[in-house]
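User: Can you predict the 3D structure for this chain?
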Amino acid sequence: MQSLNYKHLRYFWMVAKTGSIAKAAAQLHLTPQSVSGQLSEFADALGVELFRRSGRNLELTDTGRRIVSYAEHIFSTGDELLELVRDKTLAATISFRVGCADSVSKLIACQLVEPALKLREPVKLICREGRLDTLIADLAVHRLDLVIADRPIPAHFSVRAYNHLLGESTMSAFATAALAARLDGDFPACLHEAPLLLPGEDFAIYQRLLRWLEHSEVHPRVVAEFDDSAMMKAFGHSGAGVFFAPTVIASQVCSQYNVVVLGQVDSVLEQVYAISTERRMSHPATLAVSTIARDKLFV
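Assistant: Here is the predicted structure, written as structure tokens:
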């Protein structure tokens, strides 16, 4: 069988739904003989038994039941397609499917993506969050239009994609006012033996921060590492320790998490990339992301 005969699949599906060839024929406006013949051709082409007789009724085989579940999905998707075509509002809407690596600050990601909702053309925004390798895999099969990450696409990925540097920021250290009051000395000496919250090893910034701490000859107590930047800030808000975040969002971090800036680390930079399958970004929403990064966020 070279390809699936969708007409035969629909006849089979109708027989499975109605429970008899006669009822299916009536709904399809065909003769029972025609439906029966088409059903036999479908079973022969697949090389499987679809029904078994139970008195006057037909019962699905195990294989038949599995094919019915696929048919349900296929024809419901077809109905959605027709609904989309008929609905002019939906047809005019641009979908923008963006993946955000969990190592990227949600405050930065939100500021980058939010302008896409203000385009002249209506945009339906679909956001996904996860590990970079999972998002790149989705990008490769066109489940995503864009991936926002804290590093370029790793060299070992055999995916035809392009890196677009959106900008970079120095890092700042943050703590609650109560914790800051207990620290001795100026920054960064005040971090010595202070409780520290670090991003996880999957963050591009992780090794850079460790090297900077070693070079500064300060030895804080690392009390926790996090794979999610928002959770790290939430623990920082609770007073569990000092944490780092990009300086470009310092005011938002202080306001949202009720913390203060201890100091700025100019030698450690956090980079933000847009990864796409386009050499030159042309999707209106990706252009909006690039514009807001260049003209506002990373000025």
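The radius of gyration is 29 Å. The longest strand covers residues 260-276.
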